[in-house]
Amino acid sequence: MATVLGFDFGTRKIGVAVGQTVTRTATPLTTVHHQRQQPHWVALERLVREWQPSAAVLGLPYNMDDTVADWAEQVHRFARQLHGRFGLTVHLIDERLTTREARGQLGAAAADPDAVDAFAAKLIVETWLNDQHD
């Protein structure tokens, strides 16, 4: 069974989830807040050490007209950093509407923005896992 970590990258924080390739399921883990406008690498390293993922899945922001969002270069940079720091293969997938879907599924818990980000990361991972087996 392979484990993957999923990331819902934002400019101030990153939702994180863990998924398993055998069950094709994911679980929200946490939301990591940036420090000094940079990803909190110490916290991310702890998660990588704890879960020992074989890969990372990262949501890539698209606009509703199928164009890549203006801030997508920050996501690509984060992908390169994940690969460089941890040696992870990084899979980029369309993250459109994951935050909206996360809010819908969380219901009252959606009042907590950190819970929404972690749940969006869960949806990103599950989308990728299901795409691998279609």
From TrEMBL:
InterPro entries documented for this protein: RNaseH-like_sf, YqgF, YqgF/RNaseH-like_dom, YqgF/RNaseH-like_dom_sf
Record bears the keyword Nuclease: yes
GO molecular function, one term: nuclease activity
Keywords of this entry: Cytoplasm, Hydrolase, Nuclease, Ribosome biogenesis
Protein name: Putative pre-16S rRNA nuclease
Organism: Thiospirillum jenense
Domain YqgF/RNase H-like positions: 2-102
Family named by the database record: Belongs to the YqgF HJR family.
Highest taxon of the lineage: Bacteria
Record GO biological process: rRNA 5'-end processing
